[in-house]
């Protein structure tokens, strides 16, 4: 489990390095699909909050969706040890003795009484509905959860890889001469 976590952290770090190298030259992607792809990579740049803050500013000035901005805003605040604004970040933990998960709990939230109003302004549903999505997961026994997590990790790795490739493809299509890339597979030759 720790080995898988370390591997995921290495993937996230490699994606972060790549994305932070591309964004200063290209800016935030303007198409909704490319913006979502870039957000997916940026959301996991937890080891470098300063870079996450730069990305958030690009998102705010570019074509990022309000939902993605809400998630990134909360991610940055939580990573800085501050209360979040939209209630998108939280945690659940496996209890080894029972094989069950603790209920998902949101990290500290600024002015909780105004949370749903802020969420609505960003195109997010009510917080109680958001939390319900985690409740069913928490009722699953650890063996099936671990299988589900392995499947989710494989899907996540593929999504991150695909997102990175879609961003790169769009950049190359926009200005093929502007980017020098390491492409040993030749996948992007002739684009």
Short description:
The chain has 191 residues and is mostly helical. It has helices at residues 2-26, 32-42, 49-61, 66-79, 115-121, 127-138, 142-174, and strands at 90-91, 94-95, 100-101, 105-106. A two-stranded antiparallel sheet has the order 1-4.
Strand order of the largest sheet: 1-4
Please report the number of helical segments.
7
Structural class: mainly alpha
- Beta fraction of the residues? under 5%
Order of helices and strands: HHHHEEEEHHH
Q: Estimate percent helicity.
A: 55-70%
Mean pLDDT over the residues: 76
- Number of extended strands: 4
Report on this model:
With 191 residues, this protein is mainly alpha-helical. Helices cover 60% and strands 4% of the residues. It contains 7 helices and 4 strands. It has a two-stranded antiparallel sheet with strand order 1-4. Strands 2-3 form a two-stranded antiparallel sheet. Strand 2 and strand 3 form a beta hairpin.
Spell out the blueprint of helices and strands.
Elements: H1 2-26, H2 32-42, H3 49-61, H4 66-79, E1 90-91, E2 94-95, E3 100-101, E4 105-106, H5 115-121, H6 127-138, H7 142-174
Antiparallel strand pairs: 1-4, 2-3
Helix pairs in contact: 1-7, 2-7, 3-4
């Amino acid at each position: 489990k720790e080995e898988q976590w370390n591997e995921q952290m290495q993937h996230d770090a490699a994606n972060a390095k790549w994305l932070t190298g591309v964004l200063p030259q290209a800016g935030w992607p303007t198409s909704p699909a490319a913006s979502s792809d870039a957000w997916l990579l940026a959301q996991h740049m937890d080891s470098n909050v300063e870079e996450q803050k730069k990305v958030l500013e690009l998102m705010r000035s570019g074509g990022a969706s309000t939902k993605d901005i809400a998630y990134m805003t909360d991610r940055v605040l939580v990573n800085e040890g501050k209360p979040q604004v939209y209630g998108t970040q939280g945690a659940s933990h496996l209890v080894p003795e029972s094989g069950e998960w603790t209920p998902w709990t949101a990290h500290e939230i600024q002015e909780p009484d105004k949370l749903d109003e802020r969420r609505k302004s960003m195109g997010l549903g009510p917080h109680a509905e958001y939390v319900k999505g985690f409740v069913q997961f928490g009722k699953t026994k650890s063996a099936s959860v671990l299988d589900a997590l392995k499947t989710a990790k494989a899907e996540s790795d593929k999504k991150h890889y695909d997102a990175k490739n879609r961003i790169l493809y769009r950049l190359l299509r926009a200005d093929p001469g502007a980017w020098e890339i390491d492409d040993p597979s030749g996948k992007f030759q002739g684009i």
